[in-house]
Specification:
alpha+beta; 3 strands; rod-shaped
Length: 119
């Protein structure tokens, strides 16, 4: 007389399953977009430091993540300098497994690559 019937419990479990089938993919998509945007924001924050390094030294040779942090303490600790030449550099950043890179100098937002190599 008291409690739930088996049918009522199955209906509730089915409703919870449907809600999870909708919510989980949405959550994963939001998380991926957030990681991508965070990595790109970290790269954008590191670009002025790279240009300041060049202005101080006349070259990008010798530039590394520690040098960028010395210029601007707000540079992300996950930012890395992937490659450096006298006139170019490649910065990469990985957030939650999402790796983005940018080849400088003077990159635009279209120059961000979803890989670890700037290629």
């Amino acid at each position: 007389e008291q409690g739930f019937t088996l049918i009522e419990l199955l209906v509730v479990i089915a409703i919870i399953g449907i809600l999870l089938a909708i919510a989980v993919p949405s959550y994963l998509g939001f998380r991926d977009r957030a990681a991508n945007n965070a990595a790109k924001a970290n790269l954008r924050a590191g670009l002025p430091s790279a240009e300041a390094y060049h202005a101080d030294n006349g070259t990008y040779v010798g530039m590394n993540a520690a040098a960028l942090v010395a210029i601007d303490s707000g540079v992300s600790p996950s930012l890395t300098v992937a490659s450096v030449a006298a006139a170019t550099y490649c910065l990469t950043d990985t957030v939650s497994g999402k790796t983005w890179s940018v080849l400088g100098p003077g990159p635009s937002s279209a120059d961000f690559k979803n890989n670890a190599t700037c290629a």
